[in-house]
Write a structure and sequence with these properties.
mainly alpha; 76% helix; single chain
């Protein structure tokens, strides 16, 4: 357990450094690409008057800004750190990372659309706090937890299967 915790925090630190250090060109490029992809998908669900650049206009005087913090990359990195720290095969880790990216991307789009809908049809700014900071973050945490539990379960099944093959 100690090895996992140390590995998790080292992996998380390295990932955050690589993906969120402002002076690294790679960091800026990845975040811009992720934000652009998020906005492209959101454009399918939002009216042209609602999505303008990186802004989602809820009201003529109120908008939600989709920046690097809202592109869904941060919870993906937390999930990836747990995958890196957990002992399993490289191929299983790659599989979990690809599936995790896709699931987190979809959940983040649903989260943003939920925040927009709740803010637009609810009580405005007060609804934004509740839907974004509480419901949205809980949704992302539960997604990560569910994905990691699934990864552990799959990893355990793979190890048991491999052990049976070795015993033959």
């Amino acid at each position: 357990m100690k090895r996992f915790i140390i590995g998790y925090f080292l992996s998380l630190g390295a990932l955050l450094f690589i993906f969120y250090t402002p002076f690294l060109a790679f960091s800026s490029l990845i975040n811009t690409m992720q934000t652009t992809l998020t906005l492209e998908i959101l454009a399918v669900f939002l009216a042209d008057t609602e999505l303008v650049g990186i802004d989602i206009w809820i009201h003529p005087h109120y908008k939600i800004i989709i920046s690097d913090a809202c592109n869904g990359l941060m919870p993906i990195l937390f999930f990836y750190a747990s995958i890196f720290a957990y002992p399993s095969s490289f191929s299983l880790k790659m599989y979990a990372m690809i599936v995790g990216y896709i699931v987190f991307f979809i959940v983040n789009i649903v989260r943003i659309l939920g925040v927009v809908w709740m803010t637009k049809y609810g009580e405005g700014q007060g609804e934004f706090y509740w839907s974004h900071d509480i419901v949205g973050n809980i949704l992302l945490m539960l997604t990560g937890l569910g994905l990691f539990i699934g990864f552990i379960h799959l990893s355990t099944k793979t190890r048991v299967k491999d052990k049976k093959l070795i015993d033959l």
